[in-house]
Amino acid sequence: MGSSSTVRAVGAILHRFTNGVPSNSFIVSRNGLLKSSRKLLSSASSVSSSTPLYQASINSHEHQLRSISTFPPLCMGRRSSKIAGRKGAQDAKKAKLYSRIGKEVVSAVKKGGPNPVSNMVLAAVLEKARELDVPKEILERNIKRASEKGQEAYIEKVYEVYGYGGVSMVVEVLTDKITRSWANVREVVKDYGGKIADPGSVMFKFRRVRVVNIKVTDADKDQLLAIALDAGAEDVIEPPAYEDDTDEDRSESSYKIVSSAENYATILSKLRDEGINFETDNGSELLPITTIEVDDEAMDLNKELLSKLLELDDVDAVYTDQK
């Protein structure tokens, strides 16, 4: 038996001991990259609550006052494998974004026709595409594609999964063949040691928000705080710090401005006015309410499962609650 199979077998045993029950939360971005230190979990009882990844406070007295709170999680180490293939990961994330917007265009055209003046659903999708800087040719190609014979509308589906060490995962799918997407997700989860969760047993651990990512080298924290507060953002999340970070690691880390859908466009506009480079989400993201720590082995096994899920054409995003 190969070494990878052995690792997965050991991980599966750990997973059984944790009984697949998630107790805390973490977010993994669509690029699936993780970096953190891990403590060895010998049993399910060793999984304990960790500090929330983010926190936002709104103080209500006679007047509604909003305060932005930042929280820089600090870890004293992380797994030995450093962040690798950043360019490839960013390209993959962008490809997933373009794919999802293309599917949404097809579905909108199938429902209401190719004219955005009379088709308000299509107009909303095109507006979002402009906000996310999706190339015009991708939109035009998918409008044409929607009229092709045999092309079906796309349907949104969410699958909930348990990974190793009690970690939870949410798999977002936009597909024109539900039976195909379900079979593919189920096969990957089974092959890589995960477990399909019952509907609703994972989703309550996350909340849906809009997120703007800004590299630490592109903006000053105080400047971002001022912009976020002025634009009505909910939170500014500082990137985690690790004792073995290199200068390159630090330069590639990002702040996250968390916002409601209503204030998102205002935040982007203010960032543009200030000349700050940023990366948008793909329409929304799921942030975990709390995070869970696992050992290095479980972390790598979860990363492998995440990567394989993201390779599926129908899968647009995978979120987890691993720290």
TrEMBL record:
Pfam families referenced in this protein's UniProt entry, alphabetically: TACO1_YebC_N, Transcrip_reg
SUPFAM superfamilies the record matches: YebC-like
Domain named TACO1/YebC-like N-terminal: residues: 79-148
Regions crossing the membrane: none
Domain of life: Eukaryota
Gene Ontology terms: cellular component: cytoplasm
Family the UniProt entry places it in: Belongs to the TACO1 family.
Name by which UniProt lists this protein: Probable transcriptional regulatory protein At2g25830
Organism: Theobroma cacao
